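From the pipeline queue, job 12 of 40. The input is one protein chain; the requested action is below.

Action: predict structure.
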Amino acid sequence: MVANDLAQNLHRLMSNARISSSELARRISVPSDTIKKIRTNKNTNPTLATLKPIANYFNITISQLIGECQGLINELPDIPDNEIKEGLCKIPVISWKDAPLWPNIKNTIKSFYNILGHNLSKLSYGVKIENGDYKAFEIGTVLVVDPEIKYTNNGYVLTHKLNQDTPTIKKLLKNENNYYLETIIYGLNIVQPIAPDDILLGVIIGYEKWVK
């Protein structure tokens, strides 16, 4: 572990989240003094029991927290105080190809600040729209996907088939006790019953433009 990387990463995470040592300590049940010592590089060898709840709170891996791998930490955007809203939280943005493997992946593209006001599960993640194929979503939009939320009629879901390279967005429809998937790609008007090989990866609970 590079102690200085840990101290810098924790400082940056807390600064971007606008959270104090005492408040973080209260939320993760770790002594405030312990967090202060890590943040100021006075505790250079914290235990896993201390690192794990910190990493879980910020929805990153311990490796990212202590600086063993690059990615999420170094790409946290700075948000001006006047843009901070109540309920602001951070989710990892992953590639479309990695979505079927989530959460068993380590690589993330960027951190995205979600200001939708929803209570997200710890398994929530984002995927960025990179083409104009979909009717409902413009390019540059980050979809917030929650694998643990209940599926609802007429909602958008991320779906996947084992023979597909990447997942697709579809609308979930319910008629009596039967569920269907509606294609929302321009030029296609397809509604089919959910097949045995259709894997629902999560509910799209919201979407916002990429935070620069």
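Job complete. The two ends are 30 Å apart (CA to CA).
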